[in-house]
Amino acid sequence: MLNIVLFGPPGAGKGTQSEKIIAQFGLTHLSTGDILRSEIAAQSELGLKAKSLMDKGELVPDEVVIGMIEHKISDNTGSEGFIFDGFPRTVAQAEALDALLKKFDTQIHQMVALEVDEQELKTRLLERGKVSGRSDDQDISKIENRIRVYKEQTLPVASYYQSQSKYKGIDGVGSIEEIFERISEAIKEA
Ligand code: AMP
Questions:
Q1: Per-residue pLDDT tens for 124-134?
Q2: How much is the average pLDDT of 170-178?
Q3: pTM for this predicted structure
Q4: Of all helices (H) and strands (E), which one includes residue 41?
Q5: Are 18 and 29 in contact (CB under 8 A)?
């Protein structure tokens, strides 16, 4: 198995690049944001609880997303590996993921981190909001809150993988193809 964490702030291009990585490397995509949005669309109890937090740009509780990931990994044990997109977002999630992968006799091989400056992120998210219909992309105060939550709760996850020598920073500015090339190189080195 090859397990990669695709990391970066909101608007860094994780979703776009995940699609290309899956096509190229045959990995299974695990996006907690996508799973949560499908729970909202299905109007499940979990979706209804998550919606108000997501609308505000706050994180949903660790145990909720860890449970979702556990389910998805258990359902895909025959996979070539996983690309984790938008997860882990807290150090507690990263620790839970390590423990979970250990149960399946595997591990995270690399964190590929897309680095994009804050002004570019805001511009990209406001543009995405015009076409995606995502309510959390349509209001600058919500976007700013997500960036604040990222800095406070999610950035420490980068240090967590750095201390395991698994961190690889990538310049996340350029064309989609250029960035994908950089990511592909990093994954091949993993
Ligand atoms: P994303 O699509 O990854 O930008 O996620 C959209 C929203 O879903 C986030 O702003 C959070 O409210 C929630 N979310 C997604 N993934 C996680 C996670 N790993 N932990 C907590 N909340 C999450």
A1: 999 999 998 88
A2: 97
A3: 0.96
A4: helix 32-41
A5: yes
d(CA 166, CA 36): 27
Q: 60-88 pLDDT, tens per residue? A: 999 999 999 999 999 999 999 999 999 99
Q: 21 C-alpha to center of ligand 1: Å?
A: 20
- Ligand 1 neighbourhood includes 111 CB (under 6 angstroms): no
Give the bridge partners for 82, in sequence order: 28
How far apart CA 80 and CA 82 sit, in angstroms, is 7
From the alpha carbon of 10, which atom of ligand 1 is closest?
Answer: 4
Q: How far is CA 49 from CA 36, 37, 44, 52, in A?
A: 10, 12, 9, 7
Q: Phi, psi (5° rounding) for residue 133?
A: 75, 0
Task: Assign domain 2-178 to its CATH architecture.
Answer: 3-Layer(aba) Sandwich (3.40)
Which residues touch 154 (CB under 8 Å, ≥6 apart)? 9, 89, 90
Residue 187: exposure state from Cβ atoms within 10 A (0-12, 13-18, ≥19): buried
Lowest mean pLDDT among 134-138, 149-153, 178-182: 134-138
Domain ranges across the chain:
2-178
Out of 89, 142, 168, 182, pick the active-site residue: 89
Sequence-separated (6 or more) residues with CB below 8 Å from residue 144 = 122
